[in-house]
Every structure is written in structure tokens, then in C-alpha cells.
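Summary for the lay section of the report: proteins are chains of building blocks that fold into shapes. Here we show the chain for NmrA-like domain-containing protein and then a coded description of the shape we predicted for it.
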Amino acid sequence: MSEIESIAIAGASGSLGPHVLKALVDANFQVTVLTRSKEPGAYDASVKVVEVDFTSVESLTAALKGIDGLVSTVAAAAIENQTVLIDAAIAAGVKRFIPSEYGNCTTSPKVEALPIYAPMFKIKQYLQEKAKAGKLTWTVLACGAFLDFLFGRPILLDFANHKATLFDEGDNRISATSLPNVGKAIVGIFKNFEATKNKVVRISEVILTQNKLLRIVEGLRPDIKWEISKVQTSAILKDGLDELSAGDFSMPIIMKILTGTALAGDIYGCAYDETDNELLGVKELTEEDLKKLVDGKLA
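The coded shape description reads as follows.
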């Protein structure tokens, strides 16, 4: 019998959650969705949906009885409150907890004190303490940037307007993984219970640089003239931190801090040269795969 047969997911309706849910269902796990309020028909009939109070250990414990694994894909604002989920998981006898982290530089000590990353480190430390006491096990999945976001938004290249703002000199390396493959990797974590116990695992579908993408687009469409500008990630980060210190907690300021770190390349360990791709069932993109992806954005 497998160590993990039943899995609960918190945050199933967000950007990543639906992909994780689909991967778990496709892998034939018994899946329970934890939600604040039930919506008829929101999930497949094979999925159990339980309404919970995410601020209540008692409510969550009741919902997690008989559950082997718990994966969190909650939004950034709820990351620090995952201690309640962890306490409930322990009380219910859950064996493995995967916290909501899913970044590219979230495990770098250099970002530990920064506002958007500090809650992730607190959760990781909390999990380590509980695991050391033998109360549950954990796995953090570092997946790089979401490939879907990098190509769906004008982040690395503005495909629609043929513009590129190069971060530093455009050679910053960034690991990226598609949302469906993040879901597949989470299945891999649960299926490889011992090999993924109490550790950070890393996946990377592709390592990108802006200049590499520009070479591809120029090769595919030499007729398109690109407008190029440059910006320093260190300057973006400083601006974000200065404005945050001045009391501006708006999303554009948070995005500056995120951009100044997650797109700064090897300074913050944003590219993974060593991965757990094979263990977790994630295939890397070939050069042809990447060219097709880029070509699709130029169509």
C-alpha cells in the first residue's frame, strides 16, 4: 500500500490550484478540496469538497481526518497563516505537507529578510521544527517562474509590441516550469514519499535568458525590428524597498521587489543547474519545443 492515497488541497481555485487538482485526480488519488464556500458544480464529481474555516484549527482538523497528504496553493496574502493548516494537519495525522511557495529564488538566504519572502521562510522553519519533533513531514517545491506567465505577459519580452526591457544586460538566467508540470511534480512528490521527505526539491522545464529569446525571435522573424531598452534589477529592487519603507504597500511596489530578485539571475540562484526533474517526472523542453513556443507568440 502506498504511503499517500488521500490528498487534500487548499487554494484549488487560484492560478496554480486547478492544475494541481487535475494532476492529482488524473493520478487517481482520493482528492478533497478545502474551501471557504461551496459552489455547486465547481469541481468534478469525483472530488470531495469540504467547507472549512481557514482560521480554525478545529474546523480544518475535522476536514483532514483520514487524509494522508496536504498541498497548499494559497495566495501570497495567506502564506503566513499556513501555520493553522500545519497545526490542523498534525492534529489530524496528515503525513506530508507541501506549503505554498513555488518560486525560483524563494530558497535563497539572500531574500530571507525581504517582505514578500519572509513569510515563506517562517513557514519553512515552522515545518522544520514540527518535522524534527516527528509530527509530520514536508516538501518544498522550487519550480522557477511559471512559464505560462513569462509567455502570457510582457515580462521577458513584449511579443505584442515587439519591445524588450533587458534586465541588466539580458543574460540573467531564469528557470521556468509550466503550471501543468508543477502539478505533475506535486504528484511525483507524493509518489516518492521517502525520496522527497523533509527537503527542497527543484524542477526546471527550461532555463531562459532574454537574449536567448531575442535570438530565437530574430531567427524566426528577421523582418521584425525590436525596440530594446535596459534596466538594472538592483535599482528596481532598491526603488521597491524604499517605497515600501515609505508606506506604499501597493501591488506595483510588491512587483518591483519581485522583479528585482526573481529576474536577477544567478545573484539569487534563479536558475537550477541541478534538478529533481527525473524523480518527479518533468521533461525539459528541447530547443525545438522552445522555438515552437516562441513562434506561437509571434503568430
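Put simply, here is one thing we learned. The chain has two domains: 6-142+179-202, 146-174+206-272+281-298.
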